[in-house]
């Protein structure tokens, strides 16, 4: 088969370049936007994704990690009764006010009180054992590398949280918070910092690891139904992380923003791409008409145009992938939170190829001018 | 006058065809009750001034346009009875076209131009290639098969277009002003190739042109004016084709 579509694309690449760029930029914009949104809102669930727990047990109806309320300590006993559970650990999450010595006003911080022992579940992925061990010291805290300037302290420096003096014993990376600053301490220190009498030293969450993490869904369902130990709800780590991210995306309107931009990008890309393809078809309309005179059906000619659209899409995506990889690597190096997962990447690919496809379909209509009778003069 | 050696076979027949174009309130009757028959194995030239309806007649005889009245019989089909898909199928199997413009794809070399329609005939890659090469040799382009249109002269481009039509092995070959975009020498080469195709393949070749220089190269000349055939004569001693005769 003579590869008419492909050869024309190569021969007249200048003509097709705008379409390739349009598809490429549409894909790239969408990809970067998704990566940024996922990265930024992913930090809403950093407590979950940075930890080794398989189950999260919290106050019923909690929409996002940062909205937790103290729960009954007796829930621990109920969770431990389940033979699938390997380990249960408390987690304290609280809002607090940070004041550094520079006294530039207060900074809103989120204190995470965790079990600092090396086998602890909380922040198992984010804090190496040597670093967590330093939290054993009373009033020791760890903050994220990216926040240290904002807080106006250095390692070894002191500051006040809710009026209580703390000392920064180390910095972590990848613990940036959404709408504030994360501060990690031991459970004991966190209880000292908690000024809300209603909490009474109770944990905000219990987190559990399972003997077989694959059973998380079944165990969560099994534990959910029991109210005898006071009100609580059980989520899988993955489910609770998604719940937290979704809450933020919907609450801030970012989700609607993503969809809105996707629509705009699709529309603008499709207009440019279809116009380019229409012009390409118009440029070859006499040749197409000749093929039709020789008996090549209109259906076959349509395929040629669609194939051209496909190659435009594929080339655009190739460019977007290369450029996107470079930009994402650059962003990571600058501590810009960017995250990409396979479903979102696939969605961007589908968007770009869909754009090319729709443009191809639009261009097919201009084949109507390929009337062989018009070649007779 | 000229008694053919073989009995003539009519492959193309128009019976009382009429065709008018309406643009706005103006109605132009281009053909009005025209009848003719055209035979296989010879080059028939329809000659006449511009605007007399030659191209319209060719479009009707080849199934590119339908008639207002009358009927067209091509081979064993009545073209008016066929729908769009059937007409495309008929053209694919039986007809070749050569136009005034060469209409070659700028991205393809000569061999690919000729090969392209053959794939739609269902020919395998190898057979399509072999046929394309053979047809290009037949029009004298054996050494220019790898060249793209931009690298060919006008006459060579028209020969590629002829090879593209010829490679399908059509029974009917239509040419509309095939020499009008060419200089005299190239035009003569083209008309001689068409003539030779009719003779060697038994193809029905119908050529329409306003160029009187072609008259001497045809087997039969129909003079047309104002949508009517004025005269129909056979050129008794048609000159031997210029390019090499088959041995
Ligand atoms: N599609 C069309 N619409 C309107 N008028 C047309 C059309 N095609 C041809 N005509 C008219 O029909 C007449 C014959 O045209 P044509 O067959 O092209 O003549 P020729 O090929 O002999 O020069 C001309 O007057 C032309 O203007
Ligand atoms: Mg004409």
Coarse morphology of chain A: elongated
CATH C-level category of chain B: Alpha Beta
Largest interface: A-B, 27 and 39 residues
Give, in order, the helices and strands of chain B: EEEHEEHEHHHEHEEE
Strands of the largest sheet of chain A, in order across it?
A: 2-3-7-4-6-5
Distance between the termini of chain A: 31 Å
Largest sheet of chain B: 6 strands, mixed
Describe the structure concisely.
Chain A is α+β, with helices and mostly antiparallel strands.
Folded structure, characterized:
- The complex is a heterodimer of chains A (377) and B (247).
- Helix content of chain A is 50%, strand content 16%.
- Chain A is elongated and about 95 Å long.
- Chain A is built from 13 helices and 9 strands.
- Among the domains of chain A are: 2-43 and 253-376, no CATH class; 95-191, no CATH class.
- A 6-stranded mixed beta barrel of chain A has the order 2-3-7-4-6-5.
- The relative contact order of chain A is 0.20.
- Chain A has 377 residues and is an alpha+beta fold.
- Chain B is of the alpha/beta class and 247 residues long.
- In chain B, strands 6-7-8-3-9-10 form a 6-stranded mixed beta sheet. In chain B, strands 2-1-4-5 form a 4-stranded antiparallel beta sheet, covered by helices on one side.
- In chain B, helix 3 packs across helix 4 (125-138).
- The radius of gyration of chain B is 18 Å and the shape is globular.
- The model of chain B is unreliable at 1-5 (pLDDT under 50).
- The A-B interface holds A 1-2, 4, 7-8, 10-12, 284, 286-287, 289-298, 300, 372-373, 375-377 and B 55-56, 58-59, 62, 64-65, 85, 88-93, 95-97, 99-101, 103-108, 112, 115-117, 119-120, 125, 148, 164-165, 168, 176-177.
- Adenosine-5'-diphosphate (ADP) is lined by residues 21, 23, 28, 30, 50-56 of chain B.
- Adenosine-5'-diphosphate binds next to strand 1, strand 2 and helix 1 of chain B.
């Amino acid at each position: 088969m003579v590869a008419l579509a492909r050869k024309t694309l190569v021969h007249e690449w200048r003509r097709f370049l705008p379409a390739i760029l349009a598809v490429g930029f549409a894909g790239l914009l969408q990809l970067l936007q998704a990566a940024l949104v996922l990265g930024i809102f992913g930090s809403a669930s950093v407590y979950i994704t940075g930890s080794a727990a398989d189950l999260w047990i919290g106050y019923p109806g909690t929409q996002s990690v940062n909205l937790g309320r103290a729960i009954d300590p007796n829930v621990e006993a109920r969770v431990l009764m389940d033979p699938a559970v390997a380990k249960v650990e408390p987690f304290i999450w609280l809002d607090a006010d940070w004041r550094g010595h520079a006294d530039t006003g207060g900074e809103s911080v989120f204190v995470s009180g965790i079990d600092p022992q090396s086998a602890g579940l909380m922040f198992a992925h984010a804090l190496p054992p040597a670093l967590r061990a330093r939290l054993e010291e009373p009033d020791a805290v760890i903050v994220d590398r990216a926040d240290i300037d904002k807080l106006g302290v250095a390692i070894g420096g002191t500051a006040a949280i809710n009026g209580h003096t703390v000392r920064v014993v180390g910095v972590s990376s990848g613990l940036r918070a959404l709408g504030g600053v994360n501060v990690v301490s031991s459970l004991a220190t966190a209880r000292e910092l908690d000024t809300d009498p209603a909490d009474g030293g109770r944990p905000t969450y219990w987190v559990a690891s399972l003997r077989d993490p694959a059973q998380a869904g079944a165990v969560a369902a099994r534990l959910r139904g029991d109210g005898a130990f006071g009100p609580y709800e059980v989520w899988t780590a993955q489910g609770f992380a998604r719940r937290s991210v979704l809450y933020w995306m919907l609450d801030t309107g970012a989700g609607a923003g993503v969809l809105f931009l996707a629509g705009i990008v699709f529309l603008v890309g499709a207009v440019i791409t279809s116009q380019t393809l229409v012009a390409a078809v118009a440029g070859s309309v006499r040749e197409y008409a000749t093929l039709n005179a020789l008996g090549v059906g209109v259906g076959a000619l349509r395929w040629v145009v669609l194939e051209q659209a496909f190659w435009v899409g594929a080339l655009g995506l190739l460019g977007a992938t290369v450029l996107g990889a470079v930009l994402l690597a650059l962003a990571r190096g600058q501590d810009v939170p960017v995250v990409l997962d396979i479903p979102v990447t696939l969605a961007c690919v589908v968007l770009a190829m869909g754009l090319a496809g729709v443009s191809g379909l639009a261009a097919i209509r201009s084949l109507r001018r390929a009337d062989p009778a018009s070649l007779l003069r | 006058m000229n008694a053919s050696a073989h009995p003539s076979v009519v492959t193309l027949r128009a019976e009382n065809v009429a065709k008018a174009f309406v643009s706005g309130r103006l109605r132009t009757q281009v053909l009005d009750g025209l009848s003719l028959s055209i035979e296989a194995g010879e080059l028939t030239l329809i000659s006449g001034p511009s605007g007399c309806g030659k191209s319209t007649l060719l479009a009707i005889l080849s199934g590119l346009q339908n008639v207002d009245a009358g009927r067209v019989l091509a081979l064993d089909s009545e073209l008016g009875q066929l729908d769009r898909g059937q007409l495309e199928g008929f053209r694919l199997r039986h007809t070749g076209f050569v136009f005034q413009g060469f209409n070659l794809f700028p991205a393809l070399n000569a061999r690919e131009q000729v090969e392209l329609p053959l794939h739609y005939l269902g020919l395998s890659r190898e057979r399509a290639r072999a046929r394309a090469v053979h047809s290009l040799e037949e029009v004298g382009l054996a050494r220019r098969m790898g060249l793209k249109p931009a690298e060919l002269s006008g006459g060579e481009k028209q020969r590629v277009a002829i090879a593209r039509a010829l490679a399908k092995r059509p029974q009917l070959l239509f040419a509309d002003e095939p020499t009008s975009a060419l200089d005299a020498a190239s035009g003569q080469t083209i008309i001689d190739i068409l003539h030779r195709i009719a003779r060697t393949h038994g193809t029905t070749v119908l050529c329409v042109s306003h160029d009187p220089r072609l008259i001497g190269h045809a087997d039969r000349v129909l003079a047309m004016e104002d949508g009517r055939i004025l005269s129909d004569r056979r050129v008794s001693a048609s000159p031997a084709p210029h390019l090499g005769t088959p041995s």
